Amino acid sequence: MALNRLKEPFQYDKIPLEHIRQDKRDKAKNAWGTIKRIWSYLAREKVQLTLVILMVIISSALSLLGPFMVGVGVDKYIEQKQISGLGMLLVWLIIIYFGHSLSVFLQNYWMVGIAQKTVYTLRKNLFEQFHRLPISYFDKRQSGELMSRVTNDIDNVNNTLNQSVIQVFSSVLTLIGTVSVMLYLSPLLTLITMTIIPLMFIAMRWITRRTGPLYKKQQRDLGDLNGYVEETVSGQHVVKTYSQEARVIEAFKARNTKLQHTYFWAMTFTGFIPKVMNVLNFLSFALIALAGGILAIEQVITVGVIVIFTEYARQFTRPLNELSNQFNILLSAIAGAERVFNVLDEEQEETDEKTARTLPSTNGHIRFDQVDFAYEDTPILNDVTFEAKPGDTIAFVGHTGAGKTTIINLIARFYNYDTGLITLDGIDIKEIKRSSLRSHMAFVLQDAYLFRGTIKDNIRYGRLDATDEDVILAAKDANAHDFITKLPKGYDTMLDQDGSGISQGQKQLLTIARAILAKPAILILDEATSNIDTITEVKIQDALKRLMNGRTSFVIAHRLNTIQEADTIIMLEDGHIVEKGNHDRLIANGGHYYDLYKGQLKQAAQ
Questions:
Q1: Residue 511's pLDDT is what?
Q2: Domains of the chain (ranges plus CATH)?
Q3: DSSP line for 261-323
Q4: pLDDT at 8 over 60
C-alpha cells in the first residue's frame, strides 16, 4: 500500500501531518552545549577572531553613522538651503560607505580562514575517531550514514561558520546600536516603532518551533538515504544476481520521498520568514510616517529625524529578519554538529587499555578457559575451553551461527569476553594493548579486501617498511608472482577498491601475500578458499601451507576436506563445544563431526 502511493504525483496538500509535528528525536538534546563546543574550536584562532570582531564592530558602527549623517544633512543643509555643505556631506558619506565595505570584506576574509581551519580540525578528528572506535560500533551502523557525518553534517557546520556567525554578531550589534540612537533621538517615536516586536516574536516563534525539528529530521533522513545508496551501490552484483532492481528502486523512492517531504516543509516554513518581515516592514514605515508626521507638525521632532527613523526602522527590522533566517540555519548546523559530536563522544577502543602492556614478541600460545560471551544480551559462547600451542592449527567447524567467527573476534579483541579467561603466552589478552596484540596477527578472510592503489602497495599493506624485493618474494611464496607479471604494468598495476580486473582467486592470492609479508606469529583464516575454482584453490592451499608453517593458525572452514590435517578440530553448536580432536579421532567417534563429514561427502558424490 505504501509503495503504491509513491507512484502517484507528489501532492503537497496531502502530506501527512507527522512531517510537521515536533518529534522528540528531532530536538537538540544539548543545543547550548553543542554551541559551546563549536566555539571552543573557533577560539583557537584568537588573533584572527579578534580582528573579525573588531571589523564587525566597525562595520556596524559605520552602517549606523551613514543614515544619521543623511538626517543631519536634511536638517542642517537642505532645510537651511546651504548647498556648499552638501558637497562635504557627500564626501563623508563616500568615506563612511567605503570604510563599511572594506570592513565587511576583511571580516569575511578572516572568518573564512577561521571556518576552514575549524572544519578541517573537525573532519580530521572525526576520521581519526572512526579508527579508534570498536568493531561493534560499525556493526550496528550503515557506512553510508557514517559517511554523511563527514560530508553533509560537517558541510552544514562549514556553511554556517562562513555565513551565519558574523551575520548573527553583526545583527545583534546593529540592533543594539539602532535602538540606542533611536531612543536618543525620540523615545516616543521609538516606542511607537517597537509595537511591531510582539507581532514579530509571535510569528518567529511559531515558525522556528516547526523548522528546528524539521532541519534535524532532514539531516537524519539524508543520512538514511545516503546509507541506503552506499549499501545498494556496493552490493550491485547481488542486486542484479537476484533481479531485485525494482524492489531496491521502490525502497529508494520511499526514503527519497520521505526526505522530499521533510525538506519541503522545512523550506516552506523557512520561506514564511521574509514574507512576514516584509509585512512588518511596511507596517513599521506606515507607523513612522503617520506618527513622525504628526510629531514634526507639532515641532516635537525635525524632518531629519523622520528620515533617520525611516532608515533605522529598516535597519531595525533587517537584523531581526537576518537573525530569524540565521536562526534556522544555525538550527540545521547545530543538528549536524550534534551528530558529529555524538560520534566523537563514543567510547574509544583504547579507553579500557591505558595501563595495558606491549608485547614485543609472542610464541602464539593461546588458551581459552571457560569463556562466555553475549552480544547485546544474546548468549553467543558458553563455557568454551581449548588450547592452541605454538605452531598448532586449530580448525572450527559447525553450522552457521554456532560461534566460530565470534571466537576469532575474541582472539583479536574486536570484542572483549564476558567471563572466563583468554591468555596469550600466559597473559590475559585484556592486559595486552590491542595494537600490540594485532601486530602479531594476520587475517586471510573469505572476502578479499583490496584498497585503491597498485598491487605492490596492496601487498605492502602487511608491512609498510618492506622493500620491493620483500614484496616480490612474498608474492612468489603466495603463488601470485606469475599472474602479476602477466599484467600490463606488473606490480605497478592500479586496482580499484573492489579489485576489478582480476579474479576472486587472484585477489585472495594477494591477501595471502600481504599476510606472508607481515610475518605474523598468529594466523587467522576465515573461509579463505571458498568460492574459488579448483586450479586456483590448489595454488591457494599450497600458499597457505607455506604461510601456516611454524605459526599458530586458526581456521574456519565449511568444506571439511580442507582441514583434515589440522592438529585440533573443534565442533561447535549453539556456542558450545560438542566435540574436539583431530580428523581421524572425530571420524572414529562417529559423532556430530562424523555426520557433518559424511553429509558433505554425499553432497559431493551427487
A1: 86
A2: 31-347 (1.20.1560.10), 362-440+522-538+550-606 (3.40.50.300), 442-519 (3.40.50.300)
A3: HHHHHHHHHHHHHHHHHHHHHHHHHHHHHHHHHHHHHTTSS-HHHHHHHHHHHHHHHHHHHHH
A4: no
